[in-house]
Recover the amino acids of this structure.
């Protein structure tokens, strides 16, 4: 499986989506669903870290995927921090803001996991 969705901390305040290898758009949909389930299991705010540093993705369908994610955003989602996104992905993330405002409302791009924790 090219993705994993897990709680980062015992307090359940951070969820990590870690992508490795070739990631298909369907994998992203499954990760979105799993993350939404975890976030919905608690009532307090939760941050989401997406680590794409080891991933190879085909950007075909990216805007459709962003729209899908937008429909799944739980009310308690706070920050979305993407690690390792190249410039193209960052630009697409900004464009996606028009069709997926909930999913991209608090979107940050960083280079490392340490940077992600500094943002949080």
């Amino acid at each position: 499986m090219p993705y994993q969705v897990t709680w980062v901390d015992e307090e359940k305040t951070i969820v990590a989506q870690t992508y490795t290898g070739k990631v298909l758009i369907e994998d992203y949909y499954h990760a979105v669903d799993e993350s939404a389930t975890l976030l919905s299991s608690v009532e307090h705010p939760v941050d989401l870290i997406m680590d794409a540093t080891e991933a190879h993705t085909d950007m075909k369908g990216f805007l459709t995927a962003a729209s899908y994610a937008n429909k799944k955003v739980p009310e308690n989602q706070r920050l979305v921090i993407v690690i390792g996104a190249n410039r193209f992905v960052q630009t697409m993330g900004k464009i996606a803001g028009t069709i997926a405002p909930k999913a991209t409302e608090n979107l940050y791009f960083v280079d490392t996991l340490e940077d992600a924790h500094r943002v949080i």
Observations:
- The chain has a mean pLDDT of 92.
- The beta strands are 3-7, 14-23, 46-57, 77-83, 107-110.
- The longest strand covers residues 46-57.
- Residues 2 and 63 are 20 Å apart (CA to CA).
